[in-house]
Task: inverse folding
């Protein structure tokens, strides 16, 4: 992608899609989620900040993986945590 909101988003060449429609961490602990996000570095699909566990944000901060994509049907956007940047694709 080019001319995006930040260098992290600009470096994304191919959008990683969710492999499964579940939060990988919520499943392990029997928790529920609201929306799903997919890490653009490792491909993990995790829950959003509206979900009780906020696994996507936790993952971004602990791993240093900066960009997520919405894993929700019909949504086509990316978000960069370090730059607080948003871009549609």
Result:
């Amino acid at each position: 992608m080019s001319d995006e909101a930040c260098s992290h988003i600009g470096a994304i060449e191919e959008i990683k899609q969710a492999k499964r429609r579940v939060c990988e961490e919520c499943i392990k602990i029997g928790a529920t989620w609201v929306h799903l996000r997919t890490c653009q570095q490792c491909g993990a699909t995790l829950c959003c900040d509206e979900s009780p566990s906020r696994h996507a944000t936790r993952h971004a901060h602990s791993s240093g993986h900066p960009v997520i994509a919405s894993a929700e049907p019909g949504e086509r956007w990316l978000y960069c945590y370090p730059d607080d940047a948003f871009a549609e694709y």
